[in-house]
UniProtKB/TrEMBL annotation:
Family, similarity comment: Belongs to the UPF0174 family.
Top-rank taxon, per record: Bacteria
Organism (species): Croceibacterium atlanticum
Residue ranges of domain Ubiquinol-cytochrome c chaperone in the record: 39-169
Protein name: Ubiquinol-cytochrome C chaperone
InterPro entries per the UniProt record, alphabetical: Ubiq_cyt_c_chap (IPR021150)
Length: 172
């Protein structure tokens, strides 16, 4: 086998294994309940906030299990790929896409850390504060219902077998 064959042979993209989970994260983030019942703004900002919240909870679940923890990087790469495509589709030019992606990844990292800390608390006070700072709500909405529903979602994720999680078989 020549060096070029070894370098350029078609290898399956390891991210493809995580694509069903990424699609499910997006589906869950679009659940009507977040917007109609929990007061998240049904806007570009609100939808992004819910993608990041749901993705963060999934990533937190993945880091609890050594069997699948390494796949969190692949899932994050799919997030970046999707956001890159969304930015380009909305007219953001090549010259600044990277800067925008850097900001979005930074947002994900910040919310991941904030949710990790808040979910370790017994009551929802810290979680409500995180959501109040980081989620676009409709006017007059409070983060109480969203905090309760996200904590319940995180608890459901904790009960899912690793292969079901990575396969995207999660309930909203």
């Amino acid at each position: 086998m020549s060096i070029f064959t070894r370098i350029f042979r078609n290898r399956p993209d390891p991210r493809e294994e995580m694509r069903p989970l990424w699609h499910r994260v997006v589906e869950v983030s679009r659940n009507r309940r977040w917007y109609a019942d929990d007061g998240v703004a049904d806007s570009v900002g609100g939808r992004f906030d819910m993608i990041v919240a749901v993705l963060s909870l999934v990533l937190l679940r993945m880091e609890k299990d050594a069997e699948i923890a390494g796949n969190s990087a692949l899932l994050t790469e799919l997030f970046v790929e999707d956001m890159d495509g969304q930015l380009r589709q909305s007219g953001v030019g090549d010259m600044v896409v990277g800067k925008h992606i850097g900001k979005l990844v930074s947002v994900l990292g910040g919310r991941l850390g904030a949710l990790r800390e808040a979910l370790q608390q017994e009551d929802d006070t810290a979680l409500r504060e995180v959501l109040e700072r980081n989620v676009s709500f409709t006017e007059g909405s409070q983060p109480d219902a969203l905090a309760r529903d996200l904590r319940a979602f995180a608890a459901r994720l904790d009960r899912i077998a690793p292969e079901d999680l990575t396969g995207g078989r999660i309930d909203a």
